[in-house]
What we know:
Helices cover 33% and strands 30% of the residues.
Amino acid sequence: MMTLRLPAVLTLLIFGLGIEGMAQQQRSFIPLPLKVEVSFDRAWDTISETLDEIDLEIAHQNRIKGAVVTHYRDYSSGPLVDNHIARIGEKPKLIDSQWLQVRYRYEVLVEFIHQKETLITVHADITALKREFLGTESWVQIATNGKLEEELLTRFGRRLFGQSFSLETPKKDFWDRSPSYLPTEKERNPKIIGPERPGQIGPIE
C-alpha cells in the first residue's frame, strides 16, 4: 500500500509547489521606468512633492545626477512581520530564527532625455531584521515584489495627470505605445486625466 501511495503523494506535493510558484510570479509586478512628457524640473519637483505627501524624508539628493534616496521607514515590527514582508517582497525561508522588523527606503533616479521628456526609475530597498536561535541579530536584504514601487509611481502619476492615472489598469487610449509611456498634454483628454491640485490627490487603493 505504501509503495503505491508514495508516487501520488510526491506528485501532489510537486504540483502544489508549482502552483505556489506560479501564484508568486503573478503577484509580482516590477514597474518599468516611466517616460513622462514633462520637463526635468517638473518631474524633479513632483517626485519631491510625492515623497513629502507620504511623509518620507529625503536622506540624500543630487539634482545634477537626478538621484534621490529617502531615509528608511519602519514598515512593521512584532508578530505580523512575516505577513508584512510577504506583502512587499519575496520572503526568504528561515530555519531556527525569526523576523523582528522590516523597513524600506526609496531610491529614485530622474533622468533628463529631452526638453520635455524625462525618465523616472524607482527602486525599493527593503531589509528585514532576523534573530537567530542563539540570539544573534542581522539585517537581511529582501527582494522587492514591486508593490512599493508601484505605489510611489502611481502617486507620482496622479499628481501629474490626475486620479485616472494607473499603472495596472490604464484607461482606453490612455497610452498607445507601452505601459511605461505617458501621453503629452495634447494627447490627453483633460476631462479624464487633466492636472489636478495637490490637495485633490487621494489615497492609493
